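Q&A log
Question type: sequence-to-structure
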Amino acid sequence: MGLFSDLLKKAGADTDLNELAKKVADTAEKAAAAAQKAASEGMARADRAAQQARERAEAPRQERAAEAAPPAKKTESPKGFSWGEEMPPEENQYNYGGNYNAYFSHVFAEDFPEYTVKAEQDPHRDAMFYTLSKNGVRALVVEVMPATSSAASTRKRCARENVPYLRFYHNHKGWWNTRAYVTTRVKAALG
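Response status: OK
Response body:
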């Protein structure tokens, strides 16, 4: 074919120049595809990291807003009434004196002493998971989360694992999470 064919034959190469060119082109295509895949994965990792950074930056602001009690009129409400415009006089997450994590931990420790309670912060959003166990067996998973979150993944996982699931919203306007409301729902879920 020419000078390169002659050189390849003299060098002992068994392939012709066209076959060598095809192999070089295939190798270049594979390298380009691998580079494009790595770049796409890198961009996806960067997007996830940026989203997590935004969520971490947003969490303190959301927690401060959730901890601030909504304006309340001091009027009597029926015991256990956990929602409405007026804050009930019963202990609730807004008049407890701590943030919602402290409030729910307090309620679980005092009202369910026969259970071991493990609290875990969701690493991706402003939510807490409380796992109530008895004799080493999970009896209930309680998720306390913002009203704008979806509970689907945790609820589905619990259903697959045959563990009761319950959720409370810590920042839903007009939802007070009174102690009676929380304990009644938890007792019902525990059976």
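Response note: The first strand starts at residue 116 and ends at 121.
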